[in-house]
Amino acid sequence: MRRNHVRDWSLRALGVAAVVAAALGFSAAPASAHNYPVGYAPAENSVVTEQPGHFTLTTNDTLLNLDGTGTGNAMRISGPTDAPLYYGDGCVTLFGAKLETTAQLGQPGEYTVTWQVVSTDGHPVSGSYTFTWQPAAGQVLAPGLAAAPTCGTTTPTDTPAASAPSASSGAAQGAVASTDLLWIGGAAAAVILAVAATLLLTRRRPTP
């Protein structure tokens, strides 16, 4: 009987080690193993006066593109901060170490670019940055989407006209922030589950 207990405890110990290794590999791998941003266009904290058209994230290494469609890589443009809407069609293109999407901007203000890429080691990496949109005279302002676009499903008829800030703009901003948080939080959820499994296994001690 005791031999069985020893064997069970050994198996549990191996399970704990595997879970810890997975969690550490996912959330705390050396920085050199994960892609990281080296440049943005438009630049972070810049003031943009003409429609940029293209938004580009450049990383330090080639991005993973297993199925050729860029699955797992994404970029979203939202703003302005006081009355946020989404812009673009949700589609992205990979060019080696670069991720790119197209969009026309709406009302003036601060805009946020939220991105997610899959590193060469297979781990998702995400982040965001802001810039200020101050359109020069003659710039055509684009309508926006109340919900984040999904590539291949959004058409021009889906986009309501952008409106001036209203009393409900705070709620709209919260909705945009919540959606982006859920989008980039999937990777963190996996780490939390791994830690929970580790705690559960370590608390179950063998009986004499």
UniProtKB/TrEMBL annotation:
One of its GO terms (biological process) is response to copper ion. The keyword Transmembrane helix applies. GO terms for cellular component: periplasmic space. One of its GO terms (molecular function) is copper ion binding. The chain crosses the membrane at residues 181-202. It comes from the Bacteria. Keywords: Copper, Membrane, Signal, Transmembrane, Transmembrane helix. InterPro entries: CopC_dom, Cu-Rt/internalin_Ig-like, Ig_E-set. Pfam families: CopC. Residues 1-33 form the signal peptide. Residues 34-132 form the CopC domain. The keyword Transport does not apply. This is Copper resistance protein CopC.
